[in-house]
Structure formats: C-alpha cells, structure tokens
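Why Bypass of Forespore C, N terminal? Reviewers of the renewal asked for a concrete example.
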Amino acid sequence: MNKKTIGAALCFFLLLGSAAAFFHEESFTSSDSKAEPARYTLILQQEMPDGEMVTEKKIETVWSVEDFWMKYRDWNVVDQNQEEIILRRPGHRK
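Here is what the prediction returned.
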C-alpha cells in the first residue's frame, strides 16, 4: 500500500470511531431503559448576509438522535466530541 492509501484508510477509521462514540446507544433512552438523555454544549455559528458571524452557545438535551439531526438538518457539523457539537449555517446571500 502506498502512503496515500494508508492515510485515507486511517482517516476513514478515525471518522468511523468518532461517529460510533457519538451515536453510542447508551447515550440515548430506549423504551425499556430509564437512562438519562444526552446533554451537549451546542455552539451554533450563523453567517449573516453582511458576512458577520454570529455565535450562540447553549446546552442541548438530546432524547433522540433522529430528532436532533432533524432539528439541525440545515446546519453543517464543524466539530464534535462527546461533550460539544459545533454547527455552522451559511448565510443566505442574494
């Protein structure tokens, strides 16, 4: 294998591991468990039409992964870990 192939494979497995940790089933409630919901520090970065970047920081309680991503479907993931998610929504320029 050449270095490019090894690098691509390494990136793939790192992303796969990050996604698996983020979507781990025990972080969310199931119908037969009394687990607490996941809580994340959510940083929302929104680009305004004039180019200014507005940032909002809040705590988000996540009961359902599907509902969370539906709520933020228009946002792009900038970074995420087990405690914090940074999302960015591009401005709507004419």
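The beta strands are 38-47, 53-62, 76-80, 84-89. This is the kind of structural detail the renewal will allow us to pursue systematically.
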